[in-house]
Design a protein that fits this description.
Its EC number is 3.6.4.13. Pfam families: DEAD (PF00270), Helicase_C (PF00271). It catalyses: ATP + H2O = ADP + phosphate + H(+). With 464 residues, the protein is an alpha/beta fold. It has two domains: 39-279, Rossmann fold (3-Layer(aba) Sandwich); 284-461, Rossmann fold (3-Layer(aba) Sandwich), CATH 3.40.50.300. It has helices at 39-50, 86-94, 102-112, 129-140, 157-170, 201-209, 226-229, 236-244, 261-270, 299-312, 325-337, 351-362, 402-409, 428-441, 453-463; strands spanning 63-65, 119-122, 150-153, 178-181, 196-199, 220-224, 251-256, 275-278, 289-295, 317-321, 342-345, 368-371, 384-389, 419-425, 446-447. The protein has an eight-stranded mixed beta sheet with strand order 1-8-2-7-6-3-5-4, with helices on both faces. Strands 11-12-10-13-14-9-15 form a seven-stranded parallel beta sheet, sandwiched between helices. Helix 12 (351-362) links the parallel strand 11 (342-345) and strand 12. Helix 3 runs parallel beside helix 4 and helix 6 packs parallel to helix 8. It is globular. The two termini are 35 Å apart. The structure holds adenosine-5'-triphosphate. The site of adenosine-5'-triphosphate has 19 residues, from helix 4.
Length: 464
């Protein structure tokens, strides 16, 4: 049986044709594999990892482009080099950070320089972008001035809460006051005057419109997950409306692990004359996440394989990404009936229920989180060692979505930790989606046979 498997993926969703994927007979979900995963090769690789049990250095090449070629720029190697205020330095060390990660060492000298310059910063998932923009914010706040001076917007409620917690933790020895601006967090008519406001774009815009939030003194405006925040089919309009009411002089900071070409172009107009830190295409995802896929026979078989994985393995914590809310509900019921402690979180849930679901998972009360793309980005839970793409990510036009894939798998393997991701393919289409993504990110996704659960166990136990 060959059929579709003989043709290569010709089109990609991101407007750029990927390099043609060499046809590998053994990799088709439909073909009888002539060759499955090479266990000895994999074992060798795993042994290499085991030699380095500590966190891998969060190092990768980044490219720095200065807005002004006359500027002189040096990255730093310690937090002291940044000449941070004493209380901030104390906060950083209290969080257990010993030295800046690559993105922090590269971005912070540029962010902290005076006069402030805009920044478009890219670095892989889990490499410490939050601390980079948070330290800049905390350094710039004038405590004596009781007005909002920094605004951070992020695409999801859970991410906004996480950023706020991070800022509070880092700034706990300072007098900086912070406030959350997500649905239900601020009473009707209540004025917001915290030094730093972190929120989702819709709520922030509402607060501005209703004059509950005065943005006239804002000096730093951060868009986390900036490519998603600027997406013209999504949150882009609201982000632009917010930017248009910001003081013209405010420093605009855009951060993300991904900046597809069309968004990058737009980003340079949104944050003009920005210093830029960017990644090479082949460095978009980190090495410490081992990527696998499984051929399933059909939708039903996917659910069975999922059950087998969880019945068999003692997995720390894991996230299962699905395409629709219905699938999330179905899997949650099925897995709960099978005795697993599962949370589910998607757009049908209201504020308090969403908070409970993520808090239960964050604090380990539930071990499995089933979710849609709403949690694909930014969520930082270090214990997550497995991500399952039960459904491959697709964009609004149902084309393979490599950016979302990169963010989804980035929920594991945080800050140099090891992680595993498994993609489920169950038909020609999902297989092609996976292959297109593999080609885009330039990293091999290894096939794991579904017919031998013992093999799966062997592979995953070593990885997780
Ligand atoms: N210098 C540091 N030393 C040790 N740990 C750090 C350091 N900087 C950040 N971390 C930790 O690394 C983890 C990942 O950081 P963070 O969430 O900021 O990543 P990110 O780059 O924003 O990821 P994403 O693209 O997924 O949003 C967090 O748990 C954070 O506390």
């Amino acid at each position: 049986m060959s059929g579709w498997g003989e043709t290569n993926v010709k089109e990609s969703s991101w407007g750029k044709d990927p390099e043609p994927t060499p046809i590998k007979k053994e990799s088709s979900w439909a073909d009888e594999p002539t060759e499955t995963i090479k266990m000895d090769q994999l074992e060798k690789e795993i042994k290499e990892i085991k030699k380095h049990p500590h966190l891998a250095e969060v190092e990768h090449d980044v490219q720095v482009t200065l807005a002004d070629s006359n500027d002189i720029y040096h990255s730093v190697s310690t937090f002291e080099d940044l000449k941070l205020k004493e209380e901030l330095l104390k906060g950083v060390y209290a969080m257990g950070y010993q030295k800046p990660s690559k993105i922090q060492a590269t971005a912070l000298p540029l962010l902290l320089a005076d006069p402030p310059k805009n920044m478009i910063g890219q670095s892989q998932a889990g490499t410490g972008k939050t601390a980079a923009f948070s330290l800049n914010i905390l350094s710039r706040i004038n405590i004596a001035q009781k007005t909002t001076q920094a605004l951070v917007i992020a695409p999801a409620r859970e991410l906004a809460r996480q950023i706020l917690d991070n800022l509070r933790e880092m700034g706990k020895f300072t007098q900086v006051v912070t406030s959350l601006a997500v649905p239900g967090a601020i009473e009707r008519g209540e004025k917001v005057s915290a030094h730093v406001v972190v929120g989702t774009p819709g709520t922030v815009m509402e607060l501005i419109k209703k004059r509950q939030l005065d943005v006239s003194k804002i000096i730093v405006f951060v868009l986390d997950e900036a490519d998603s925040m600027l997406d013209q089919q999504g949150l882009g309009d609201t982000s632009v409306r917010i930017k248009n009411v910001m003081p013209k002089t405010c420093q605009i900071v855009l951060f993300s692990a991904t900046f597809p070409d069309h968004v990058r172009e737009y980003a340079t107009k949104f944050a003009v004359n920005a210093n830029t830190i960017s990644l090479k295409q082949e460095e978009l995802s980190v090495d410490s996440i081992k990527q696998f896929y499984m051929d399933c026979k059909n939708e039903q078989h996917k659910a069975e394989i999922l059950s087998s994985i969880y019945d068999l393995l003692t997995i720390g914590q894991s996230i299962i990404f699905v395409r629709t809310r219905r699938t999330a509900d179905y899997l949650q019921k099925r897995m709960t009936d099978e005795g697993h402690s599962v949370s589910s979180l998607h757009g049908d849930f209201e504020g308090a229920d969403r908070d409970k679901a993520i808090d239960d998972f964050r604090e380990g009360r539930s071990k499995v989180l089933i979710t849609t793309n709403v949690l694909a980005r930014g969520i930082d839970i270090l214990q997550v060692n497995l991500v399952i793409n039960y459904d491959m990510p697709v964009d609004k036009d149902m084309r393979p979505d490599a950016e979302t894939y990169i963010h989804r798998i980035g929920r594991t393997g945080r800050f140099g930790r090891q992680g595993v991701s498994i993609n489920f393919c169950h038909d020609k289409r999902s297989f092609e989606e996976m292959k297109a993504i593999e080609s885009y990110i330039g990293r091999e996704i290894i096939r794991v046979p579904t017919d031998n659960i013992a093999d799966i166990e062997k592979i995953l136990k070593k990885e997780i």
